Amino acid sequence: MSLPAILLVVFVVSVMTSLAVAGRLTHVVVKPRLPERSRQWSASRIPRIGGIAIFAALPIAIIAAASANAALTAQTIAALILYFSGFSIDHVSLFPGHTFHLGVAALPITVLWLVGVSNAFNLVDGLDGLAGGVAIIGLIASAAAALMLGNPTVPLYTVALIGALLGFLRYNFPQAKLFLGDSGSLVVGFMLAVLAVKGATDPQHLTRGLVPIFALAYALLDTGVAILRRWLRGVPLSRADHRHIHHQLRALEVTPRRSLLLIYSAAATSAAVGLLITFAPPQVTVVATMIGVAALILAMAFGIHWLEYHEFLAALSSIFSAARNARSVIRDKINASDIAQVIANAKSFEEVQATLHDNAGTFRFAHMKLSDSASRRRAASRVTQELQALRLWKLEYPIVHEHTTEYDGLCLTIWCALETPQRPAGAERIAQIIGPAIGDWVRANGAGKGRATADDDLVLRHDGELVRPKIEDSELIRDLEWEPEQENSLGA
Length: 492
Prior knowledge:
Number of domains: 2
Number of helices: 18
Order of helices and strands: HHHEEHHHHEHHHHHHHEHHEEHEEH
């Protein structure tokens, strides 16, 4: 019997077996899963044992998934058994003529690939018909690669699994009557990881690395995005959420069928690009690689914006801002250290105040001064009005100068403009350099001795300029029609 005939027989038998078993399983009633413990959208009584239908057609051991740790342990053990049975990724070629010999790294990379793909496939099983369809696309690409490399064995297994998945999809497509469940999705993912590598490996044990990576690109990308999102948010990487790609599509009111069409199209295109780059002539490979990389970058940029993954937008903004402002930040830190040294050598409290006032512009601040709790309470209303008029915001940094647990209200206050041609320095960063220097100075010179009068001197002049009045500007203060309730506690 020829190879096409054998493949046809395997395909038909697997489809019929899967259809028969899956049809019976749809009548099974199970206890519903709590929504907060599931990545599935549905919390109904739809059975999640569709994996039985697939593996009734394929006699392969099921990896149990009693808990997250148990599942990971079981997958690692299964991967190690497979490795020591002869399955390994030893030699990898990403481009024609470039081969990487992994050596001792073959074991961890093989185990990481098997376990990683298993869990990645489990994560995408959150939308009716998604996991099965993505798996079929990956299996078709693996079978095509195996036939091109002269490997007739792998297509037998891939065709059998494709048939089993098609029979399952008959009941899993929206609206689903049957779900894979963890036991099904984990094992299908494990088999995908094995078959994708075996299909891309030639008789000389050289694995074309781009074939399995592109064939399973959607599952790998979705998992990578989820890991990065959770890392950026500072939450456990294993914490389930509803912000996977298929969840975001549904949140954007894309219908389930259209979501499947979009994801299927992206997965099929990725798999085709991987085969094209690997098996096309060198001239075509170079062009395909350039087009593929450019399309991938554009798709990721558009996808991040469209799917509203603001975690990445915030990260990119921070990275670009850090690169653009690195020199300015360094310069501001140097200037702050210089001012801290000047404060350390100051002879009086008034000199400290003058130093802060005179150097506010160095950091593009509107104003910088010391005040205590009494002066802030007394001038709260007036200062608020002036801040609103000038469109300013302020930061108050407490000066602890006796003991770490003692605070008498002394505070370094920094005002910054909301709109300014030059971006102000980080007020908190500058305060963290200058503030401790002020604390050291107060501690060395006595907390209550030698303080000059330090009324809240933020004054809005008639021409709109923020000024610090001197003694001869008493008329300016009187014009504000404001009378203090008591003497400033900073006064001598």
